[in-house]
Design a protein that fits this description.
Distance between the termini: 55 Å
Helix content: 55-70%
Shape: extended
Number of strands: 0
Radius of gyration: 19 Å
Largest sheet: none
Strand content: under 5%
Order of helices and strands: HHHH
Oligomer: single chain
């Protein structure tokens, strides 16, 4: 492929990505700072001492991300969500909680006291 053709194709990809980024930013970032949701989640994760070097820590970060999004949709956003509904966000958060539970289950090899839920 010639470089000029590659540039044309890559420019189209970039244009699509930027359009998606701008659309989604309306649902995620509620301030003029397009990085505010990352900053908020970082503060929450630091406050909760979430260890990002573990699978369970990463799963919790995803839960926090969805919680931040839900908070934005419920309390800060005045428009109807464009890309993901409140119900979608709740379902995603519940799925991430289930995945978090699985990381704990795997870490503890299912635990010997699985029936008691003590793992």
């Amino acid at each position: 492929m010639e470089i000029k053709n590659a540039k044309i194709i890559l420019d189209k990809f970039y244009t699509k990505r930027i359009k998606l980024l701008l659309q989604k930013s309306k649902d995620y970032a509620q301030s003029k700072d397009c990085l505010q949701n990352f900053k908020d989640v970082a503060i929450i994760c630091k406050t909760l001492n979430i260890d990002s070097s573990t699978p369970e820590g990463i799963a919790l970060i995803y839960v926090v991300l969805k919680l931040d999004r839900l908070s934005n949709l419920l309390f800060k956003k005045k428009d109807v969500p464009v890309n993901e509904s409140i119900e979608d966000t709740i379902n995603d958060m519940q799925n991430y909680i289930d995945l978090f539970r699985l990381t704990l289950y795997e870490k503890n090899k299912g635990g010997n006291n699985e029936e008691k839920g003590s793992w």
